[in-house]
User: Which sequence fits this backbone?
C-alpha cells in the first residue's frame, strides 16, 4: 500500500483556504439546486447567525421543489464565508478549571465516534491508514489512537491544525480534500464528521475520498439530520442549521442518494451521538448558554460566571438526553452517522 507524505502541505491563508472549496459547475449558486439543478424552490423561513453573531445579515432556508434538498440561500461567496468562522471556532484547552472540565467532557462524549470508527477498522488490514477530514483540533484522532493505524488530519484552518499538532500530537495538512497531498489508494478509513454540510460541492469530496481509499476501504460521515424531530419542532431556531456556515441541510435520504452516486454503499448507520444530539438540543433551547458561542462572543464576564453558565448548559444537555434518545430510536435523531464502503 502506498503511504502519504510524512509532512503536511505548506499552510495557506484563511482566504485561500475558503476560496479553495470546490464549487458547483452548473447553474448559479444563488438560484439552482446543487443536487438537481432545479431553479424553483419554496422558502421555509429566514434565519441569521444565532450562535456566534458574526453577521446581522438574514438568509433564507429553502427547499428544492423537485428533489426537496434543503439549503441556505444565498450562498456566501468564499471570501465572505471565511469571515463566519471566528478565530475561536476550534477548541483549544487552556489551563483554567472550566477548560479542564470542558476537555474531560469532550473526551468522554467523543467516544461514540471513536467506537463507530474502530468497528469500521475491524474490517480492514491491520496497517490501514486513517484520514480525518475536517479534523479541527484533532481530539478524535487522539482518542482513536491505535498503534497499528497511522492517522492524519486535514482541515482548512491553520488555527485548527496548530491546536491538533500542539495539543493532541496529530499531523495535519491544511487545504481541501480535492487538493490533498496524498496518493490514490492510500487510506483504509476516511472520516468526515460535520464536514459535508459546510461545502459548496460535497460530491467532489466524496469523489476524492473514493479515490484515496483502498478497494476495501471504508468511509464514515456524520451530518445534522434535517429529518429530525428537532427541526420539525423548532424550525429556524434548530441548532443544526448553523446559519450561515451550513450551506446544505441533509435529510438521510439525501445522503443515500449522494453516496450512491459517488460509488458508495451504506454498511450501517447510527442516529444518536452523545456529543452532538443532547448538546444540540440544549443550544437550540438556550443559544446564549452554548459554551463555544460564549467563547466566540466573549460573553463571560468572569471565570465564576463561565463556570455557572457551563453548569447550567450541562444540566440542560443532560435533561435533553431522554428526548434525543427517543427521537434517535425512531430513526429521527438530530444527527446521522453512516459507514459506507466502496462499491465493487
Assistant:
Amino acid at each position: 500500500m502506498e503511504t502519504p507524505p510524512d509532512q503536511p502541505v505548506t499552510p495557506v491563508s484563511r482566504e485561500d483556504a475558503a476560496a479553495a472549496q470546490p464549487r458547483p459547475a452548473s447553474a448559479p449558486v444563488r438560484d439552482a439546486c446543487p443536487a438537481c439543478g432545479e431553479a424553483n424552490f419554496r422558502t421555509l423561513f429566514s434565519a441569521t447567525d444565532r450562535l456566534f453573531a458574526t453577521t446581522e445579515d438574514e438568509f433564507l432556508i429553502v427547499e428544492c421543489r423537485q428533489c426537496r434538498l434543503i439549503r441556505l440561500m444565498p450562498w456566501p461567496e468564499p471570501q465572505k464565508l471565511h469571515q463566519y468562522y471566528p478565530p475561536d471556532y476550534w477548541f483549544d484547552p487552556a489551563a483554567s478549571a472550566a477548560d479542564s472540565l470542558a476537555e474531560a467532557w469532550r473526551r468522554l462524549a467523543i467516544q461514540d465516534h471513536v467506537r463507530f470508527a474502530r468497528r469500521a477498522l475491524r474490517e480492514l488490514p491491520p496497517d490501514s491508514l486513517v484520514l480525518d477530514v475536517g479534523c479541527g483540533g484533532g481530539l478524535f484522532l487522539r482518542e482513536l489512537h491505535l498503534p497499528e493505524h497511522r492517522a492524519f488530519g486535514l482541515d482548512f484552518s491553520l488555527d485548527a491544525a496548530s491546536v491538533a499538532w500542539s495539543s493532541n500530537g496529530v499531523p495535519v495538512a491544511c487545504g481541501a480534500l480535492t487538493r490533498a497531498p496524498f496518493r490514490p489508494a492510500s487510506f483504509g478509513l476516511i472520516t468526515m464528521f460535520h464536514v459535508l454540510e459546510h461545502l459548496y460541492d460535497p460530491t467532489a469530496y466524496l469523489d476524492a475520498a473514493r479515490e484515496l481509499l483502498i478497494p476495501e476501504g471504508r468511509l464514515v460521515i456524520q451530518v445534522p439530520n434535517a429529518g429530525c424531530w428537532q427541526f420539525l419542532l423548532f424550525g429556524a431556531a434548530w441548532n443544526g442549521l448553523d446559519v450561515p456556515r451550513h450551506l446544505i441541510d441533509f435529510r438521510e435520504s439525501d445522503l443515500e442518494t449522494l453516496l450512491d452516486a459517488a460509488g458508495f454503499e451504506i454498511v450501517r448507520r447510527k442516529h444518536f451521538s452523545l456529543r452532538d444530539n443532547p448538546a444540540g438540543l440544549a443550544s437550540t433551547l438556550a443559544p446564549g448558554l452554548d459554551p463555544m458561542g460564549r467563547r466566540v462572543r466573549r460573553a463571560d464576564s468572569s471565570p465564576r460566571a463561565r463556570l455557572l453558565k457551563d453548569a447550567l448548559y450541562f444540566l440542560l444537555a443532560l435533561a435533553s438526553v431522554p428526548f434525543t434518545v427517543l427521537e434517535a430510536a425512531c430513526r429521527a435523531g438530530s444527527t446521522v452517522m453512516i459507514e459506507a464502503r466502496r462499491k465493487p
The chain has twelve helices and eleven strands. Confidence is low (pLDDT under 50) at residues 1-29.
